[in-house]
Design brief:
The complex is a heterodimer of chains A (837) and B (229). Chain A has 837 residues and is an alpha+beta fold. Among the domains of chain A are: 165 residues, no CATH class; 165 residues, no CATH class. In chain A, helix 15 packs antiparallel against helix 21, helix 23 packs across helix 24 and helix 23 packs antiparallel against helix 25. The longest helix of chain A has 53 residues. Chain A is globular. Chain B has one domain: P-loop containing nucleotide triphosphate hydrolases (Rossmann fold). Classes of the chains: A alpha+beta (837), B alpha/beta (229).
């Protein structure tokens, strides 16, 4: 009906002040909601696009394809498309991957020089291969299994220098004979006709050929393109997502839900008080024949008219805010990157800032969610307005009709206090809505601050400070070059230096049940330590002879051949922060024998323990809660590895260099890097120093500050506008009440006192309502982390300044509202109130 | 004893053509008077009441209540003066909807930091027949009952004068007669000075004196023109 539309439009136009305040509230809420949705959407879409552009959009890949499987899948009616990768062992410590034409449309291989192969006899090789084989270069020919290939490009290989290299070529001959050549291996990528049946089809296929799906997946023979499948909401159990997906969904949904709740409450408040103010007009319209349905329609139309513009503007602004936040973080990352590069004197690739791609879908979702929220929030005020009695409406009586539940109205000489309480009860629905929105804003901020507090506690109590200024891990396929060790030892300005190798094995509880101490046994039984055998591991540290001798000397132990010393110490309770842990013996006897394996399938390796110590030598490492630490000489460890063979899953040997210096750390780091680069390549080490750690730490702190500050600013603005709008609106809606009170003899001072007291009681109620959910948030955080930090500890560490600020801003909002409301009340002609229509 | 006295009281509402609502009204009321002022709509009778109640200010002239010139009082002082000295009863009762009947009645006292005189309070509520309604809220009462509460509120501070603006205008005939009777009863029992603005001649007849307001001028209907022009 045109008249309803016109009335709604007139009401919006007439109440410019209210319209503006409401529009600002909606705009702020949409900006906050939109920013989060744009960022989440961008992360999700970026991941999807990255996977699609790099590894492709196939559903599953299976390797070790034999003729039977090949024949079956080629004729399988459930398959939409198949693509193969053929692996050819070149005999030059490298494998040639022949990939289909579609593969070459992807960005999987990062070409550093030259181009991608375009013909069957063209290949690309790694820069590592060219470094190790100087006779080859771009355009040179290479013979692989009696066939000549031309090197047309070089791609970056991030593997260790000692690992096998690989080449890529174009798979042009897709005949069965060529693919199934007995010397080569074959992998197939499958696109099913129905992607939703990926998991069931694959299980059916593997079952047909008696392949254990779980094992195939664990050894990498079977690979589901999980990122894409999850993006399409395809899960192993059909449409029901696994626990981790549900948990991550909940983590993302909670803030969005809270924001929508906050958004809804703000809009509800804004329209509730607005309608209260227009009660007379509504009553007049009803008396002129407007039906309840028409009133509701008019209110809803009004809500939509007020909301559409701020929602659209908010959605656009939120895109800008999301980009601004991303840009700030990029700048931050750039600062760290520059600092880190200056430390290493490197020039590396640094991807420039790029805008979050404007996603029309995200935009539509934001607008849709906002409109839905606005619409739902308008239902109650619309219903309430529809039900207004004409008499009450004409009298401007908006107070709660259900007086029976209000209890006795106390008579007290402190009349302002007593009236404030009466009004609080009388307008309890309005005040309840104001309280809820304030509490949600405070809780949303508390959620951020609780996580921050927990992270800080973890850093403070659940980690060990590294006493060494520089720490470097070197990766080799054999023992560490003795000359490299000697050269490191010659480094100037080094106050303390330790070089050691280490190797990690599985430490299964069942293999060691006879030697494990009663205390540890009890701790496992009582759930203080995990009973999951897979999660314990043994690390054997091989020290240089001099360091090892010193360890023996410090512990009054005698050197013996093939000597292994055990750190007979393990934490009593894993769930206690590192700094507060108590320790118990790991094994019953100091001299014993412990057993380890590379994996469950591998043979048992028995380590004879000659004696035990109780402190980690030289404080080199922290006491890991599930590590069994054994110390020996570097030579013994090398011999052991030779004897037991390499770990198939992790054939790399690890060596650690740790040093302390009081001199210029940058200079020492430069000297160290120059020294090791004489023996190893850049990709075979991972070095970090205090300056670098500090740079990373600062980057993280800056990022956190950016995010927190951004979120806090928005919440503070929301808190201020929400408190002001709601309280001010409520006061203005009660114009008639105040006029009656003035006519009954209430002075301006008394009115001031009464409404200030109402504001105080509102804040008091907000604080009371806030406390329980706040404790719940902290309790859940503590519970989820198995009470590593008790709730009180987390509370004690929370930075309450933003919360106090939020309450202060809310108080300021109420103060401004009281001030402005008071002026308008006092300046109103009380004749207006006492004259009736 | 003169309770109320106006001297050349005028009110002009300025506009394209100035509207003279009150035209040099000189009027007095003595202690215990029960006076009715009648007149057509727009004659200025409600304007006169609003001036006397201190909720509107005159363009010219003076108002003395118990000898105090209220026209020079500040807004704040007027509010305090009103709650101590003037009881006002409105056509639409104007009770505060969200506080109990008891508190509504006691409001002027409480706002002044005083408690009620128990016996007087009991007498007032019993006289008005609302003793059993004290813990209710205004919208749980009928129109007649609400007006009784309004009268009780106007009496609770023992004011110098009670001003009633169309007190029966919103009531049915039966309630109207009851309220009229109550004003008479209150006037006699408490020796209250009461001025009733009304267009109901039956109400006017029940009063001791009746004046008529015509175009902002006040005329005594008992033959004597009280206008001092």
């Amino acid at each position: 009906m045109k008249i309803i539309d016109e009335l709604a439009r007139t009401s919006v136009k007439k109440n410019k002040k209210d319209t503006f305040a409401t529009k600002i509230s909606i705009l702020m809420a949409v900006v906050l909601l939109g920013t989060i949705i744009f960022i989440i959407f961008s992360l999700r879409t970026d991941e999807y696009k990255y996977v699609k552009n790099t590894i492709g959009d196939y559903h599953v890949s299976i390797s070790q394809i034999d003729e039977n499987i090949y024949d079956y899948i080629e004729d399988w009616d459930k398959v939409e498309r198949l693509e193969y990768t053929k692996f050819i062992d070149t005999g030059k410590d490298s494998i040639l991957y022949l990939e289909s034409e579609n593969f070459w449309k992807l960005d999987y291989v990062d070409i550093k020089k030259g181009r991608k192969p375009g013909k069957p006899d063209e290949i690309i090789v790694t820069d590592k291969f060219l470094k190790n084989n100087h006779k080859y270069g771009i355009d040179s020919n290479i013979s692989i299994k009696d066939r000549n290939y031309k090197i047309v490009g070089v791609f970056e290989d991030l593997s260790f220098s000692f690992e096998d290299t690989f080449f890529y070529g174009l798979l042009s001959d897709t005949s069965k004979e060529n693919l199934l050549d007995k010397d080569d291996a074959l992998l197939v990528r499958i696109w099913y006709k129905s992607p939703r049946d990926t998991y069931s089809n694959t299980r059916e296929l593997l079952g047909k050929f008696n392949i254990d799906a779980k094992k195939a997946e664990s050894i990498g023979r079977l690979y589901y393109n999980t990122s894409l499948l999850e993006y399409w909401l395809i899960y192993p159990s059909g449409i029901i997502p696994p626990k981790d997906v549900i948990l991550s969904f909940i983590e993302v949904s909670i803030p969005i839900f809270l924001l929508m709740m906050l958004f809804a409450m703000m809009i509800y408040n804004a329209f509730n008080v607005w309608n209260n103010r227009e009660i007379k007009e509504i009553a007049l319209l009803k008396s002129a024949g407007m039906t309840e349905k028409q009133v509701k329609k008019m209110i809803k139309k009004k809500v939509m008219k007020v909301s559409v513009l701020p929602i659209l503007m908010g959605a656009v602004i939120s895109y800008g805010v999301a980009n601004l936040l991303t840009y700030l973080m990029w700048i931050n990352y750039y600062i760290s990157y520059k600092n880190i590069n200056s430390i290493y004197e490197q020039k590396g690739d640094f991807s420039g800032f790029y805008l979050i791609k404007f996603s029309p879908i995200a935009f539509v979702i934001i607008v849709f969610l906002s409109l839905i929220t606005v619409y739902l929030s308008s239902i109650v005020p619309a219903k309430k307005s529809g039900k207004i009695s004409i008499i009450d409406g004409l009298r401007g009586d908006i107070s709660n009709k259900k007086k029976f539940g209000l209890g006795k109205s106390k008579i007290s000489l402190k009349i302002e206090k007593s009236l404030a309480k009466d009004y609080l009860k009388s307008y309890r629905k309005t005040y309840r809505a104001i309280t809820i929105s304030m509490v949600i804003a405070a809780l949303s901020m508390s959620l951020v601050l609780t996580s921050q507090s927990y992270r800080e506690l973890e850093i403070k109590y659940n980690s060990k400070k590294d006493n060494y200024n520089l720490s470097s891990t070197i990766f080799t396929d054999g023992s560490l070059n003795k000359n490299l060790i000697e050269d490191i030892k010659k480094l100037a300005n080094v106050d303390e230096l330790h070089i050691y190798s280490y190797k990690t094995y599985k430490f299964f509880l069942d293999d060691n049940s006879d030697v494990i101490s009663d205390e540890m046994d009890r701790s496992i039984k009582e759930g203080m330590k995990t009973s999951d055998s897979e999660r314990y591991y043994l690390t054997i540290y091989g020290f240089e002879k001099e360091d090892f001798d010193n360890i023996l000397k410090e512990n009054n132990l005698e050197y013996k051949d093939n000597m292994y010393i055990l750190l007979n110490k393990t934490c009593l309770d894993e769930n206690v922060p590192y700094q507060m842990r108590e320790y118990i013996p790991l094994v019953k006897d100091d001299k014993t024998q412990i057993s380890a394996r590379y994996s469950m399938e591998d043979d048992l390796i028995n380590i004879p323990i000659a004696d035990s110590i109780y402190e980690f030598p030289y404080e080199l490492q922290s006491y890991d809660k599930r590590e069994v630490s054994v110390f020996t000489t570097m030579e013994n460890l090398e011999e052991l590895i030779l004897k037991t063979g390499k770990d198939k899953n992790d054939p790399v040997n690890y060596h650690q260099v740790k040093l302390k210096t009081k001199s210029d750390l940058n200079m020492v780091t430069d000297d160290y890097l120059n020294t090791i680069y004489k023996y190893i390549t850049k990709r075979d080490h991972n070095t970090s120093n205090d300056i670098l750690k500090e740079a990373y730490r600062k980057e993280q702190i800056r990022n956190e500050h950016f995010l927190n500050l951004g979120i806090q600013m928005i919440f503070l603005i929301i808190a201020l506008s929400n408190a002001y709008n709601s309280f001010h609106g409520n006061l203005r809606a009660r114009k008639k009440d105040f006029q009656l009170l003035i006519s009954a003899g209430m002075t301006e001072k008394q009115i001031n006192k009464m409404i200030s007291l109402e504001g105080f009681y509102l804040l008091r109620n907000v604080s009371i309502v806030y406390i329980l959910p706040f404790f719940s948030i902290v309790f859940i955080k503590s519970y989820r982390n198995k009470f590593m930090f008790k709730p009180l500890k987390i509370i004690g560490n929370i930075n309450f300044v933003p919360i106090i600020l939020l309450f202060a801003i809310t108080t300021a909002g109420i103060f401004f509202a009281v001030n402005s409301g008071r002026k308008s009340i006092v300046n109103e002609d009380i004749m207006e109130g006492i004259k009736e229509i | 004893m003169t309770i109320l006295k106006t001297v050349k009281l005028s009110k002009i509402y300025p506009g394209a053509i100035d509207v003279v609502a009150l035209d040099s009204v000189d009027f007095t009321m003595d202690k215990g008077d029960l006076t009715a002022i009648i007149g057509d709509s727009g004659s200025g009778k409600s304007t006169l009441l609003h001036m006397l109640a201190g909720v509107d200010s005159p363009t010219d002239g003076k108002i003395f209540i118990q000898g105090e010139d209220i026209t020079d009082l500040s807004r704040e002082d007027m509010t305090i003066f009103r709650r101590r000295n003037i009881g006002v009863v409105y056509q639409f009762f104007n009770l505060i909807p969200n506080i109990s009947v008891r508190k509504n009645i006691l409001l002027p006292l409480l706002l002044d930091g005083h408690r009620e005189e128990k016996n007087y309070f009991r007498e007032v509520i019993e006289t008005l027949g609302i003793a059993d309604k004290l813990d209710r809220f205004p919208n749980q009462l009928s129109g007649g009952e609400q007006q009784r509460v309004a009268i009780a509120r106007s009496l609770v501070t023992r004011p110098a004068i009670v001003l009633a603006d169309e007190p029966t205008g919103n009531l049915d005939r039966k309630n109207s007669e009851e309220i009229t009777g109550l004003f008479r009863l209150v006037n006699q029992r408490f020796n209250s000075t009461i001025m009733i603005i009304t267009h109901d001649e039956k109400v006017a007849i029940s009063c001791d004196n009746t004046y008529k307001m015509i175009d902002g001028r006040l005329y005594n209907l008992e033959g004597e023109n009280h206008e001092n022009h």
